[in-house]
């Protein structure tokens, strides 16, 4: 039962909320205790909020999830957790989150509210509208980065925002692409996710290529931007670009060749080359910046 509640809260998906640490790292405050502490609390708050959103989404998607080959095993859909208990859990988490809000500045709280409103609209409307669904997912990632900047009151580079936008779109598109592959044998794509009927493998492939290029180009330009060089007092950040390129290519390989991609977190936590590449990127970036 405990395991079922962890699945209900999607604790494995909390890794996505680490985007909130991006401004902290690139603002040169990673090793400042006060800055790190408030961002860590912000990460916990965002994680609680995303769990509420996941529970809400699962509650309204019960019938369609029953037809999905993977989602039918989710706690609410499979009957391991009742709708009443799931609702009570969401309320308890909401109360805990509300008690944490005074710890943060108003800007961060407004981003949390924006994320909640965005996902309510996504669950009820946006996920049924082609393109708007993936842009909604991408906006969620961007809000995490913006929240990370607001919570410590620092400026974040426009290039970094653009990089976040493209990588968020890339991940959302690759998720749709993998869902299409998973359901390509199904007679009716509408049976699990209505919006899939508006996509095709060729279309998602083209969008993935564009967004992957956007990630690489924007990050490369960020690493050599005059403001970046001025802040970090070095041009060496350009040497972290190969790790970004490898990460994008590796992810595409796992989706196209390895037949993965529907669960972004599973890829990031289970693929050894991806894990090694991420930590090498993180270590080298920190050494260059600090």
What do these coordinates show?
The chain is mainly α and 290 residues long. The chain folds into two domains: 1-153, Tetracycline Repressor, domain 2 (Orthogonal Bundle); 157-290. It has 14 helices and no strands. The chain has helices spanning 2-9, 22-26, 33-60, 62-65, 75-78, 83-100, 106-124, 132-151, 158-182, 201-224, 226-232, 241-256, 264-270, 272-289. Helix 3 runs parallel beside helix 7 (106-124), helix 3 (33-60) packs antiparallel against helix 8 (132-151) and helix 7 (106-124) packs antiparallel against helix 8 (132-151). It is globular. 32% of the residues are buried.
Provide a concise account of the structure shown.
The protein has 290 residues and is mainly α. The chain has helices spanning 2-9, 22-26, 33-60, 62-65, 75-78, 83-100, 106-124, 132-151, 158-182, 201-224, 226-232, 241-256, 264-270, 272-289.
